[in-house]
């Protein structure tokens, strides 16, 4: 039996995408999606740079899910997938300066400007609960 690489990657990655989209987070899959949504998003926008790594599965995505159960949350929820939607991810990362590319990572933007950023090194050595607490503190500060 032969399976194409694209089909294999879809089958492997789709559950990782679903972890976020089932929370109501909108995927930005192209540079056009990013250009249309992020710079002009009024209010606050959470942007999760998703990844296939273990810290994305064990800490990042669960931490985001916990944080979105908070009373105060961002107005908009977006995700790009590093290594899968490469151009969209690169375009989103342009908005995260001065931070270097990092995946997974989590950005909080307000009126198109970066106001809070969690880099990979702040994800891989912390629990989902700690990441959720970091995010909810940022939500309390910037999403009111």
UniProtKB/TrEMBL annotation:
Family named by the database record: Belongs to the bacilliredoxin family.
Superkingdom: Bacteria
Lineage: Bacteria, Bacillati, Bacillota, Bacilli, Bacillales
InterPro entries: BrxB/BrxA
Species per Swiss-Prot/TrEMBL record: Paenibacillus herberti
One Pfam family of this chain: Disulph_isomer
Protein name, entry field: BrxA/BrxB family bacilliredoxin
NCBIfam families, per database record: YphP_YqiW (TIGR04191)
PANTHER family with a match to the protein in the record: BACILLIREDOXIN BRXA, UPF0403 PROTEIN YQIW-RELATED
């Amino acid at each position: 039996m032969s399976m194409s690489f694209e089909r294999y990657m879809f089958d492997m990655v789709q559950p990782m995408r679903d972890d976020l989209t089932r929370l109501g987070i909108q995927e930005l899959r192209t540079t056009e999606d990013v250009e249309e949504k992020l710079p002009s998003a009024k209010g606050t926008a959470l942007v999760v740079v998703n990844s296939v790594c273990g810290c994305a599965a064990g800490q990042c995505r669960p931490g985001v899910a916990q944080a979105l159960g908070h009373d105060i949350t961002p107005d908009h929820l977006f995700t790009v997938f590093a290594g899968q939607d490469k151009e969209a991810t690169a375009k989103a990362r342009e908005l995260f300066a001065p931070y270097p590319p990092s995946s997974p990572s989590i950005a909080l933007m307000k009126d198109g400007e970066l106001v809070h950023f969690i880099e990979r090194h702040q994800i891989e050595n912390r629990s989902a609960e700690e990441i959720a607490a970091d995010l909810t503190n940022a939500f309390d500060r910037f999403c009111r």
